[in-house]
Specification:
Blueprint lengths: L1 E2 L11 E4 L9 E6 L3 E8 L2 E5 L9 H8 L5 E9 L6 E10 L2 E2 L5 H9 L7 E3 L8 H8 L3 E6 L8 E9 L2 E11 L11 E7 L2 E8 L5 H12 L2 E2 L15 E4 L4 E6 L1 E2 L5 E2 L2 E6 L12
């Protein structure tokens, strides 16, 4: 730990990087991804100032009063403020300055120990670790927005970092393959599947699926799709179709796709392949965004 003579007027909050990967490991901790506003609290003696992620002052008297009572001469706390029934809660997940010490170079595990020693009282709450075999599945069941994976040895970085990764809860549904694109670079087989669904007599383009494949599946799918190729697109309602390296196929293969959400233009956002359903009828894949 290093001492710093001047208490900082501002720190750039550390931000998590979105990932579609799902993993666990002893080097990671998981926390609930909260749906509120980022709140950084600066305590200097009895004076407490609260700021949003973009350094906008926040007026939360109950939070200010609770932080002012903490047995620390000066501190900087990082967390998320949420509103629920009654008054809101300031969920604290990190401490990055404490009693004249800059803690940013310490590993997260040590910062969490220092945070655990602070007597937080309502409306302050400590963000607990999520301990389960599949934290992202736990988040889905609980109705959370997702989870944050953080490396136990990570310092506090004033930027978006891959030491903190956010896993948002996904939806999944079936789509029908109507085409694909050629691979680029070192990738083999195909680049992305072009998928859609049936809406009455229309075959509606829903977007691309370019992740979730291994090399074996890429090769097998390309061989199967090559045998189904047709000259023109099968999509009858299709905005945003690729215009380079595209191939069209008969809409006969059904795939299961996970995705975070629909865009305002009715396309899949952050999609990945879960599986292929060769026995399922494509005409059963109906609905819209």
């Amino acid at each position: 730990m290093t001492a710093r003579l001047d208490f900082p007027e501002w720190i750039e909050p550390m931000a998590a990087t979105l990932t579609q990967e799902r993993f666990t490991g002893p080097e990671w901790i998981f926390e609930q991804k909260l749906d509120g506003i980022r709140l950084v609290a600066f305590k200097r003696g009895p004076n407490v100032q609260l700021y949003s992620r973009t350094r906008k002052p926040q007026d939360l008297p109950d939070v200010v009063a609770a932080i002012a009572k903490l047995p620390a001469n000066d501190a900087i706390l990082d967390g998320e403020f949420t509103w629920g029934s009654g008054r809101g809660v300031y969920h604290v997940f990190d401490v990055i300055w404490l009693d004249g010490r800059d803690l940013t170079s310490l590993p997260l595990s040590e910062r969490r120990e220092l945070l655990s020693a602070l007597p937080l009282t309502a409306p302050l709450a400590r963000v607990p670790e999520v301990v389960t075999a599949a934290p992202w599945e736990h988040a889905r069941v609980e109705g959370w927005e997702g989870v944050i994976a953080k490396r136990r040895d990570s310092p506090y970085e004033h930027r978006r970092s891959k030491h903190w990764l956010k896993m948002k809860c996904e939806s999944s549904r079936d789509f029908v393959v109507g085409g694909f694109t050629d691979p680029q670079g070192s990738r083999t087989g195909l680049g992305a599947l072009l998928v859609g669904y049936f809406d009455g007599d229309d075959f509606v383009f829903a977007g691309k699926v370019g992740t979730g494949f291994d090399t074996k599946l890429l090769t097998e799918l390309r061989a199967r799709l090559d045998a189904m190729e047709v000259a023109a697109t099968p999509f009858t309602r299709a905005k945003g179709l690729p215009r380079l390296r595209e191939h069209w196929v008969r809409p006969e293969i059904v795939v299961q796709v996970a995705f975070l959400e629909w865009t305002v233009h009715g396309k899949l956002r952050h999609s990945r392949l879960i599986g292929v359903h060769l026995a399922k009828s494509p005409r059963d894949v109906v609905g819209d965004a």
